[in-house]
TrEMBL record:
Coiled coil: none annotated. Heme binds at C430. It comes from the Eukaryota. PANTHER family: CYTOCHROME P450. The keyword Heme applies. Pfam families: p450. This is Cytochrome P450. It comes from Phytophthora sojae (strain P6497). Its cofactor is heme. The keyword Iron-sulfur does not apply. Keywords: Heme, Iron, Metal-binding, Oxidoreductase. GO terms for molecular function: heme binding; iron ion binding; monooxygenase activity; oxidoreductase activity, acting on paired donors, with incorporation or reduction of molecular oxygen.
């Protein structure tokens, strides 16, 4: 009897080992085919590329503190044409930065390029089948996601203004990174769920849990696939913290969804305008899990991008303080004097320089995205992208191609053209683009009309973290606050 049990266990273990070996062998073989296809084209590779390790030393040590500038330099050396990046533990990657290549990927051959199995697996714990993690029909069903929530943005922007006014009155420095995290958390939680966490007044476990999820996502993106999967399997390190954070987030999400569905049945939520209510009202055949994933997509994708974007706007306006206040003084004197709290939508349309500052900052500090072609394809410049090849589009590097932008150095220049891929393009353009631009224009106008915000550190020495999302480097972004109006 015992011998039979051992035989069964041995057989199962043997089958599992054979399956694992087949999976590994299959991936190695597929990657070898991709490597040969890319090598035969003699595409640009960084001069520092070495056998076996490729560019791993650059990414982890030599260029880690300026990784995206190094990527931009290699893109310039390649003449803006696709080039090859090789990192141990990651698939060989084709790096594309030219507008023509981006149009190929996001528009012309949109149906050919998808996120791929590895990235879908990486994102699933965070986004489920929501907009950020989905491909194909699942994603197409969610495009009607509503994003016109200007009232909430205005309300939370005024809370942020009041917090800064208090700091100015007390004459103390303030960590803008922390304030913007609270502002963004409050804004997107209320827009997503209709729940007011009042993060400006006190820390809430939900906001902390969402922050842990964001940090772990960046960690996964920069780690070999086998490493984060092993940590998840063993339930250790940041993967353990992620599991605990997901439990907190899903508990609140489930609670709010249950209450909203009960109110919906009783017809008591007619005046609610949060994303959750809108999706439940129009969901039709969407189940609860899909609605939850869609709402979490809105929250997670919007919260951090808002923090990072507003932080870079602050830094860029410290580098070039002359570009904004004159326009606000001229066109909206009531905003500067304190006679009006916030600009209207019509007011924002007239603030050309505010829009230019926001868009230029977004262009200069865009994130990297990746895609995988389902089938082999030839890009418009003649580059062959084999099926299954990882393709990366680093917006930071695209924004610095001199052949496209003709800049002698990266700088804020409000009159420059607005050809940028910050929100991607084509059929899969970011559904929150208009909302994001509205939010950042409104917050920028409200804050910089009332306060002189000076970074304690030289703004030209402020850099980014080693991450796909380009957050400001370091735990703090200290600024001095001086009121310049009746705020």
């Amino acid at each position: 009897m015992l011998a039979s049990l051992y035989d069964v266990v041995f057989s199962v273990a043997s089958l599992a080992a054979l399956y694992a070996a087949w999976r590994v062998g299959s991936r190695v073989y597929s990657q070898r085919i991709i490597d040969v296809a890319l090598a035969n084209q003699k595409l640009h590779s960084p001069p520092s590329t070495i056998p076996l390790l490729g560019n791993t030393l650059d990414a982890l040590f030599l260029q880690k503190t300026r990784f995206w500038d190094w990527i931009a330099e290699q893109s310039e050396l390649s003449g803006g044409k696709p080039w090859v990046l090789r990192l141990v533990g990651r698939p060989t990657t084709l790096v594309c930065t030219s507008p023509e290549a981006l149009e190929d990927i996001f528009k012309t051959h949109f149906d050919t390029f998808e996120r791929g199995a590895d990235l879908r697996d990486l994102l699933y714990d965070f986004f489920g089948d929501g907009i950020v993690g989905a491909d194909g029909e699942n994603w197409q069903k969610q495009r009607p996601l509503r994003d016109a929530m200007a009232t909430v943005v205005k309300e939370k922007a005024l809370h942020l203004r009041d917090a800064l006014a208090k700091c100015a009155k007390e004459g103390r420095t303030v960590d803008m990174k922390s304030l913007l995290e609270k502002f963004s958390g409050d804004t997107f939680t209320k827009i997503a769920f209709g729940v007011d966490l009042n993060g400006m007044e006190s820390d809430h476990p939900f906001n902390k849990a969402v922050d842990v999820m964001s940090e772990t996502l960046d960690s996964r993106l920069l780690s070999p696939t086998w490493l984060w999967k092993m940590k998840r399997f063993l339930n250790v390190g940041d993967e353990r913290k992620l599991k605990e954070a997901c439990a907190i987030v899903h508990e609140l999400t489930h609670q709010v969804m249950t209450e909203s569905m009960q109110q919906q049945q009783k017809k008591k939520n007619k005046n609610k305008s949060d994303v959750l209510t809108l999706l439940l009202d129009s969901s039709g055949d969407l189940d609860v899990a899909v609605v939850r994933d869609a709402v979490m997509n809105f929250l997670l994708a919007g919260k951090d991008s808002t923090i990072f974007s507003l932080s870079w706007i602050l830094v860029n306006l410290n580098r070039h303080p002359e570009v904004l206040r004159n326009e606000i003084n001229e066109k909206l004197p009531g905003l500067v004097s304190g006679e009006m709290d916030a600009p209207t939508m019509d007011d924002l349309k007239d603030l050309t320089y505010v829009e230019a500052v926001v868009k230029e900052s977004l262009r200069l500090h865009g994130i990297a995205t990746t895609r995988v072609p389902k089938k082999s394809i030839i890009l418009s410049d003649g580059t062959f992208a084999p099926a299954g090849c990882a393709v990366m589009m680093p917006a930071y590097a695209s924004a610095r191609l001199t052949s496209v932008w003709a800049m002698d150095r990266p700088r804020v220049k409000p009159v420059s053209p607005f050809k940028f891929g910050t929100f991607i393009a084509g059929p899969r353009q970011c559904v929150g683009m208009r909302f994001a631009l509205l939010e950042m224009r409104l917050v920028t106008a409200v804050l910089f009309s009332r306060f002189d915000l000076k970074t304690v550190k030289d703004p030209f020495e402020i850099s980014y973290e080693y991450a796909f999302t380009l957050p400001i480097k370091g735990p703090l972004l200290d600024v001095t606050v001086r009121a310049v109006s009746a705020a």
